[in-house]
Amino acid sequence: MSRLFILFSVCLLVSCSGVYKQVSPSIKSKTVESLSKVTPERKKELEASIKNLPASQREGMAFLIAYMSKADLDTLPAELLTSNVKLAYKARETFPWAKEVPLPVFYNEVLPYASMDETREDWRPAFYDMLYPLVKDLTDIHQAVDTINKSLRGLVKVEYNTKRKKPNQSPSESMKISMASCSGLSILLTDAFRAAGIPSRVAGTPLWVSKEGNHNWSEVYIDGQWYFTEYYPDALNKGWFLDRAGKADKSNPIHWIYATSYKHDGLAFPMVWARRDSTVGGVDVTDRYIELYQKQLVEKAKGIAVTIRMYKAEQCTLDSDGRVAETITIKNAKGDTVASGKTAGPTDDMNLYLTVSLPEPGEYTIEYTTAKGLRKDVVEIKEPKEIRLYFN
Fold this sequence. Notes:
The protein is an alpha+beta fold. The chain has helices at about 5-20, 25-35, 40-50, 55-65, 70-75, 80-95, 95-100, 105-110, 125-135, 140-155, 170-175, 180-195, 240-245, 285-300, and strands at about 160, 180, 200-205, 215-220, 225-230, 260, 280-285, 305-310, 325-330, 335-340, 355-360, 360-370, 375-380, 385-390. The protein has 14 helices and 14 strands. Helix 3 (about 40-50) runs antiparallel to helix 4 (about 55-65) and helix 3 packs parallel to helix 6. It comes from Macellibacteroides fermentans.
């Protein structure tokens, strides 16, 4: 063996040990495997992005590279990766709840620069600067989640709208036009949570078992458990879609409930706008939603479920813009209020509608305001039903 070859081998070993210092063997092995698929120039660039970080942050960068899609592996700017990693670790060092997040969860649900196949961009600096003043004095992750949930909509000025340009918009794309789909809103919310060091991922189904379309929302990880929430928040693990998610058909994957995962272990997260794309990792979380729904059923009184929708006029029932958001009050025969709520308006998710539970069969009065003033409709309710009201 020539002295030149030996010298080259020693230099290569020293170089690699410097790149992967503080990186666990399992992540190092997967990273080396991923980098074997790119050009020598790209490999050198990505290895430099690992080596140039503080030793405590190198494993995080290596993890991102290890499980990166081939498209991102080939094209994602190293500067974006570096900025993303540095700010993710800054959040971990800054916020008390972030310090407690287990490293595997931090790597997979805080550190990632994207949730699905949205346009890649450096969103983390803007979100960090936006949210830091709101959560900097908080000590509890529940408070932080609640604060972000309630504040984000007013900060980014984005509303649900079917006229958005595409379903999988990045944060800046949604904020530019002030509208997004449920998927775009979920990306916004998940990125906001991650910017504050809160583990988050997108969840959803490609098709409700009722065949009423798809839906996406967000999940957050608190004290070892995953909870669901969304851009228009209710309490954690409370939401209009739980009754649908809880009826998922386990025998058919198209009706499963999925959560995204940066680390791809074989199951793909289904994206209805890119049905053949299997590059986004997924986790089957159907059983958890079925269990949550069953618990909700036990907690609820044995009432009668009534769905209420309001439209501008009878001819507007197929148009999102034809929906009217109006407060509904339902009273029993004695005049006591037994239920109330607000119908879905034109900017609400197309899957959203008002559902109330009435205590028993009987005659009820539905009160609401129309263009002509207060209206009272007397309705006989004997079983679950849908009621359509009109504003004109």
